[in-house]
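The protein record passed on for reference:
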Amino acid sequence: MQERNKLTKSDVETVMTGQRLSREFFIRDVLEVAPGLIGKNLVVRLGDGVYGRYMVTEAEAYRGAEDRACHASKGRTPRTEIMYHEGGRLYVYFIYGMYWMLNVVTGGENNPQAVLIRGVESLHGPGKLTRSFGIDRTYYGEDLTISDRIWFEESGVKPLIRTGERIGIGYAGEFWKTRPWRFYL
């Protein structure tokens, strides 16, 4: 399932089955939202009225300007502007000249926080995820509470969540590198 055209019939559904997460879910602190997304379904329009539903299995929290691993630690820029908006929108950015990263903005206005979606069932790695679903710069700022092409919804699953250090942020220093802000199944 690494390529968009390799999805199987069992991967997709054409009708909405769960309850979409509300704005109130997203305007909480990132350290509540990130683990709260584990076990929820990421719903993505794959085309022609077909939607894929994928349980979120891994996410990382990035907590504002004080977090040296968070893009907001460098200040408010055109790239990070959406992080300063009310939670429930997407922060999508390009890295390594090849991968789009899918982040969910959390918290209140002017409190830049985001959750990086690192994996969903059967698809591990944030770059693989966005490539498989065709997520690119056009998703930047997308409102998850009203979008017709991407959102999160309840799955009814209450998973056992584990924590660990975030991945690939050695540049942020030992304190920020060792925060247990990666959440996974």
Q: What stands out?
A: The two ends are 19 Å apart (CA to CA).
